[in-house]
Amino acid sequence: MITVYGLLGRPSVELRIAAAAADVVVGGARHLDRLDVDEDRRIVLGSLAAAIEQLGSGRAEAEVVVVASGDPLYFGVVRALRAAGLRPAVVPAVSSIAAAFAAIGLPWDDAAVVSVHGRPLQPALDLARNTDKVAVFTSADHGVRELAAGLAGIGRWFVLAERLGEDDQQVTVLTSEQALDATPREPNVVLILSRHPSDDDAPWPGSIAGPGAPAPYPTLGEPE
Fold it and tell me: Does one domain contain both 38 and 72?
């Protein structure tokens, strides 16, 4: 049986017990180290495809724990596992995107979310040019500096949320110029806002459009 646990910050007692009892524990090196997983029971995530191949070829009766950052159902590992024909149980945690918005006290039900982790940067830039509130799952190559450079002259605020859930968590509101000079720590996510978090919220109808429907997010034209 495969069980995926979300993790943001300190591992729960439930996760520690599950990891200690599992035949195999899959996760990033820092997660596995924090859980004190023995070398002979760990699969360190580098290539997700390689880890999934190992899981698929394992014994069906093996107890497998997969540790994923944040909510593994939201831009997370569960989609990849299901695509490989695996059907894990899931114990979610708070998404890093939700934690970032919580840190600045800003609702995010009207936010657009995009991932540039292993994906091109351009879709995130296109979305941020036309949307008031965008959350970005970043990568080392596509982070706050690259986002700020791609949005130069648009007039956006950047919220850099670093190491969420850790003792050294830091969430900083940056201008475009400040974002260009930032040196982010991993892992991090970035929020791109048309308003400063302390400003009044934009009107929002309280609905999310379905496929083929008009975009639900307030849009902005290019500044004159």
Answer: yes
Task: Return the CATH number at 161.
Answer: 3.30.950.10
Cβ proximity of 151 and 176 under 8 Å:
yes
**Cα 65 from Cα 178, distance rounded (Å):** 40
How far, in Å, CA of 101 to CA of 173, rounded?
A: 11
The mean pLDDT of 160-171, rounded to a whole number, is 96
Q: Is the Cβ–Cβ distance between 163 and 184 less than 8 Å? A: no
**48 falls in which pLDDT band (50, 70, 90)?**
confident
User: What pLDDT is recorded for position 206?
Assistant: 78
Q: Got the DSSP string for 57-93? A: TS-TT--EEEEEES-TTSSSHHHHHHHTT---EEE--
For residues 189 and 100, what is the distance between their CA atoms, to the nearest angstrom? Answer: 7
DSSP reduced 3-state for 133: strand
Q: Which pLDDT does position 154 carry in this prediction?
A: 93
The full 3-state SS of 164-219, as one line of letters, equals CCCCCCEEEEECHHHHHCCCCCCCEEEEEECCCCCCCCCCCCCCCCCCCCCCCCCC
pLDDT at 214 over 50: no
Do 72 and 146 share a structural domain? no
Specify whether the CB–CB gap between 190 and 144 falls below 8 A: yes
pTM, entire model = 0.84
Domain check: are 12 and 56 in the same one? yes
